[in-house]
Amino acid sequence: MFKLKATIIKDVKVLLRDKVGICFMFIMPILLVVVVTSIQNSTFQLVNKNRLPIIICNNDTGQSSKQLIIAIGKIGLFKVSQVKGDESEKSMADAMHQQDAMLGVIIPSNFSSKVSAKSKSIAGKALTSFGLQGETAKPAGDVDPLTIYYNPVLQESIRLSVQGALRSALQMTESRETLRSLYFSINEKELPESLENEMLNNKTAINEVPVSKDGTRSTPNATQHNVPSWTIFAMFFIILSLGGGIVKEKESGSFIRLKTLPTSYAVAMLSKQITYLGITMLQAAVIFSMGIWLFPFFGLPALNLPADFLALVVVTLICGWCAVSYSICVGVFAETHEQANGFGAVSIVILACIGGLMVPSFAMQGFFKSAANISPMHWCLQAYYTLFLEGGKLKDVLNNLIPLFIITLLFQFLTFVGLKRKNLI
Question: pTM here?
Answer without folding.
Answer: 0.70
